[in-house]
Amino acid sequence: MRNKTFLITALLFVLSFNTQAQLLQIGAKVGLNYANFTGSEIQSDAITSYHAGLIAEIKLMDKFAIQPELLYTTQGASYDRAGQEFKNELGYIAIPVLAKIYLSKSFSLELGPQASFLLSEKNDFDVNNSNTFDFAVDAGLSFKITKNIFLQGRYVLGLTEVSTTAETKNSVLQFSAGLMF
């Protein structure tokens, strides 16, 4: 009797683990940022930077999932003053939590909020007045090349000011490639 109970318990555990694995996928991604500041009277130019981090997909329904991410992302802008270029690069830990709506088996739409926390600031000029928190909304598309490999394109629109002294907000175009495990 004990062996049957153990066998049934073990079988249920394995089945439950298999079901959980289909509902939750974890992966990693890397990509390029094309970042700039918006809302400023000062003319700025975009910089090319990067992002990398972890991604999860929690499948709630056949065509709907929640996608939380934990990324390190660099954003900012460059300025041209009297023929000399100045660059402001901000390094954030970003936590987007996106609703993922599958349009087909391969394509999905991603929408949601993003909270970012400033970790580093590299300036070519002496201005250390960046806010330590940035709130944004993300919208983009994802394409699954295979079951485990994907590409993403996303726009991140900053809603809070980057600086305490200027009315500028982050604006980032992201292109990513990733792998789900």
TrEMBL record:
Q: Which residues form the signal peptide?
A: 1-21
Q: Does the keyword S-adenosyl-L-methionine apply?
A: no
> Looking at the record's lineage, which domain of life comes first?
Bacteria
**Which keywords does this Swiss-Prot/TrEMBL entry list?**
Signal
**A Pfam family per the record:** OMP_b-brl_2
Task: Show where the Outer membrane protein beta-barrel domain sits.
Answer: 20-162
Record's keyword annotation contains Signal:
yes
What name does UniProt use for this protein?
Outer membrane protein beta-barrel domain-containing protein
Protein source organism: Flavobacterium fluvii
Q: What lineage does UniProt assign to this protein's organism?
A: Bacteria, Pseudomonadati, Bacteroidota, Flavobacteriia, Flavobacteriales
